[in-house]
Amino acid sequence: MYNLNKEKNLLIKRLLCMLLLVTLLLPSQVSTLKVAQAATNTSKVTIGNFEGSWEASGYALGKSEYTAYLVMRVKADGSFSIYDQEAGNPGISGMMTVVDEDTVSVECDSVDFDSPWPELQLTDELRYHFYNENQVRITYNDKSIVFSKVGKRFDFKKMFSGNWSQDSYRTWYSNNGINVSATYKLKLEGGSILLYRVYKDKETFITSFCGLSYNKKTNVVKTITELSDASKLPKNWRTMKEGRHFQSFKLSYNSKKHCLTLTFNKKSYSFYTNIVYGVKK
Q: Which of the four CATH numbers 3.30.420.10, 3.40.50.2300, 2.40.128.280, 1.10.1060.10 does domain 47-149 have?
């Protein structure tokens, strides 16, 4: 009898402990759920994410089409414009509405001759993707342009010292094209890298890479591209993925030799500004 009462008391104590634990843990779980829901709600894109002034990257993703002249302005009420800041020409203006997580609808007052997307209709949709709060990709049909908040666009100008301030504006060649099977040409402009193949004085555009960020400690530039044909790349880079993807390069610069070296997947190619294509030193 004594043992039975002892067991009952022990069981009651265990039940009380379990109830106490549930009472303590339940508010914590509810609070965690609320925090998770709040995080989900705050991650929803609104016109507020687009609000402000934005400048386009040097070139459309994967293309040789110059876009650095474009500026996009969006107001809190959704009114927007995209125009040519260099010539002052109008492009697109109207109202923008967020449809879902990757689409905005636009009701345009005008779609003029300097529109980055000439096929855009007065009522249409644009696709978007935010890389971060300062960089957004906007796509129509097969043309994507990365816009950065004014003052936040990636730039190659201040990456290195020495002759870099002059070299960064120049054209770079892998060799002079004499008695070689292939020469590659590189340009840096508006935060973009443009790559060409040159053979018998004929240039073939390969792709463009839009710079997103630069790590000063590792000298690695993170870019995004839309690569259509990897077989056109320099031989040791042909394992690069095709389509839209992030692509990182390690950069090194020799000021005395006017030499820029890009490394992808441990395979490097060097380009020079003091080489003139077709001219032997």
A: 2.40.128.280
